[in-house]
Each structure stands twice: as C-alpha cells, then as structure tokens.
C-alpha cells in the first residue's frame, strides 16, 4: 500500500526566505507526483505535476524535483511571501491498483511572516 | 469556464438524516472524482467516473454512500443515515484524461459536512 509522508508538518519562516518542503513515498511505481496548495477551508489548487520520466518542473518561484528511485520529491519556494501561507500537499498517482487515484500526504502547513 | 463547482459549500445535518451534494465539473472533462478530507489529513479517494460509468469505488465508500453521474455531466454524492464519523470536507475533482502520466486534476472548493 502506497504511503506518502511530508516533512515538516508545519513551518514558519520570515518573508523573503527560500524554503524546501519534503515529500516521500513508499512505492516507486508511480505515473506522476503532484504538488497542491490548500487555503483554510478551501479546495486544492494544483501547483506542479511531474511525470515519472521527469526530474523537475518549474513555475514562477516554485520548483519541484522528483527522485523516483529513492521515493522523494521536494518543493522549493524562492523568496517566500505572506501570500504563500497555506498548506502544501503532495500526492502520487500509483501504478498499483489501476492508476486511477491519488494518494496524498498530510501536508506541510506554511506560514510566512512579515 | 469557471472551474469545478460544488454545492452546497456547507451542510449541517442531524445524525440519521440523508444528504446530497452536487458537483459540476469543468465542461468536457471526461473524468470526475470524489475525495473526502478530514481535519489535518490529506484527501482520501472515494470513487471516480469516466463519463457516466462509475469505474472504481474505495472501501471507504460504505453502502450508505452512493454516487451518480447521469449523462456524464454533473455528479451527485448521497449519504444516507448520516453518522458523526461522516463529518468531513467532500471534494470533487475533474480531469480530461489523456495519458496516465499527465492527467491533471482540478478540484472544487468542497462541501463541508457537519453531522450533529
């Protein structure tokens, strides 16, 4: 059974810092890994999708990497801003079981302070 | 295109009552998913449709839960005889399925259910 772990569970940084969020998964047979952002009481917004054959994806100040063989992904946020405050979730789409669902981690709650 | 729409945003009900949620996916998206999220946890898969066919259901989906997607457009999720353990955020997502690797899910804002 696929398990996804995110470390740290919570993170507080001053504005302007660069930061890294970590995600690990137990079964490396995946189709892709996605990073989402969730604001309190809201749905999920897709940030980046990395296919299993890719190593990284970039969007603006965000960069996500994938090391499938070691079961790890990182989300790098450059020059953090208060508006980045949210919970960040990673999810993998596993091959086992038909490849039709995402398995999520429990998220990293990020607070960027002025 | 306004994205995935879910209704209602919030639902408070008494234990034992039936509730129904609606999801309108992005038009022309052929796949529709339901997930459930409890406080402090990541979303968990419940079920998905390809067009109007329900192709997979999680073991989390007890026989009190039923989902439909008539005509392959909007979907409804009904919970019968609600229990306090059903309290959660119910999230709907849709996608335009092409390949396995590049399928990107678009989520709605969710329906927050509270069972008293």
What are the SSEs and their pairings?
The complex is a heterodimer of chains A (114) and B (116).
Chain A: E1 4-7, E2 10-14, E3 19-25, E4 30-38, E5 44-51, E6 56-59, E7 62-67, E8 72-77, E9 86-94, E10 102-104, E11 108-113
Parallel strand pairs in A: 2-11
Antiparallel strand pairs in A: 1-3, 3-8, 4-5, 4-9, 6-7, 7-8, 9-10, 9-11
Chain B: E1 5-7, E2 10-13, E3 19-24, E4 31-37, E5 44-50, E6 53-57, E7 65-68, E8 75-79, E9 88-95, E10 106-107, E11 111-115
Parallel strand pairs in B: 2-11
Antiparallel strand pairs in B: 1-3, 3-8, 4-5, 4-9, 5-6, 7-8, 9-10, 9-11
In short:
Chain A starts with a strand and ends with a strand. Chain A has strands at residues 4-7, 10-14, 19-25, 30-38, 44-51, 56-59, 62-67, 72-77, 86-94, 102-104, 108-113. With 114 residues, chain A is mainly beta.
Please describe what this structure looks like.
Chain A has strands at residues 4-7, 10-14, 19-25, 30-38, 44-51, 56-59, 62-67, 72-77, 86-94, 102-104, 108-113. With 114 residues, chain A is mainly β. In chain A, strands 2, 4, 5, 9, 10 and 11 form a 6-stranded mixed β-sheet that branches. The model of chain A has no long low-confidence stretch (mean pLDDT 95). Chain B has 116 residues and is mostly beta strands. Chain B has strands spanning 5-7, 10-13, 19-24, 31-37, 44-50, 53-57, 65-68, 75-79, 88-95, 106-107, 111-115.
